[in-house]
Amino acid sequence: MKTSTARAIQCSAALAAAGLLLTACGSSGGSGSTQAAPATAFKGRGPITYVAGKDTTGTVQTIIDRWNKAHPKEKVTFIQLPTDADSQRQQMIQNAETKSDAYTVLATDVVWTSEFAAHQWIEPLPAQQFPLGRMLQPVVQTGTYRGRLYAVPASSNGGLLFYRTDLLKKAGITKPPTTWAQMTADCAEVLKLPEAKNMSCYAGQFQKYEGLTVNFAEAVNSAGGRITDANGKPDVDTPQAKKGLDFLVTSFKDGTIPKEAITYQEEDGRQAFQSGKLVFLNNWPYVYSLAQKSAIKGKFAVAPLPGLNGPGASSLGGSDLALSSFAKNKATALDFMKYFTSEESATYFLKNASLAPPYADLYDNAALDKQYPYLPDLKQSITKAVPRPRVVQYGDVTAAIQNEVYAALTGKKSSARALKDLQADLRKLTAQ
Amino acid sequence: MADTTIPRNDTAARPGTAATRRPGRSPAAGSPRSRATAGSGRLAALLVSPTLLVLTIVVLYPTLMALDESLYGPKGLDPTTGFISTTEPFVGLKNYTDIFTQAGARFWNAFWNTTFFTVVTVSLETVIGVAMALIMHKAFRGRGLVRASILVPWAIPTAISGLLWKWIFNADGIANVLLGHQVLWTADGFSAKIAVVIADVWKTAPFIGLLVLAGLQVVPKEVYEAARLDGASARQQFWRITLPLVKPALLVAVLFRCLDALRMFDLPYILIGAQKGSVETLSMLAQNEASNVRFGPASAYAVLLFLYVFLIALAFVRLLGADLVGDVGGTGKSRPRRAGAARRRAQEVTA
Question: Is ipTM beyond 0.85?
Answer without folding.
Answer: no
